[in-house]
Amino acid sequence: MNASRWAAASGVALLVAAASAWACGDSLGGATRAIESAQWRLVYRTQPEPIPVARHFTVEFVLCPLAAANLPAEVRVDAQMPEHKHGMNYRPGVTTLGKGHYRAEGLMFHMPGRWELVFELRDASAPPLRLIQSLQVG
Q1: Which H helix or E strand runs over 3?
Q2: What is the pTM of this model?
Q3: Cβ-based burial of 24 (10 A; exposed 0-12, middle 13-18, buried ≥19)
């Protein structure tokens, strides 16, 4: 392949990769946040937004591979307050809505402050991967 064809092919590959990363989570609508690792882009939104103190909320999210990767066998969602060294008083449940699309229900931040929302991707072939986003609540 000559240099100009290689450059054109590389440019197309980059555009396709950028478009797929950009499209990740578009189906969620509304205000979204994103977390990225070397392999994944996770886009989520909370309902309600902003997250209330001492009221249950849900997190709907989409997980998109950035590299060649299969979806994890299990996805968990949790939260913690690092300064207080405790987590939530509730254990949320995660439901799969479609390929790479999930909903976590039963989350509650029982006090105002800085929380870390933790998405844990689990697969038998690798250690769990944790994607963490810091949030100020209340």
Answers
A1: helix 3-23
A2: 0.81
A3: buried
pLDDT at 41: 96
Q: What does the DSSP assignment read for 78-127? A: EEEETTTTEE-SS--EEEEEETTEEEEEEE-B-SSEEEEEEEEEEETTEE
DSSP 71: P
* SS3 call for 65: strand
| Domain hosting residue 105, numbered range | 3-137
CATH number at residue 25: 2.60.40.1930
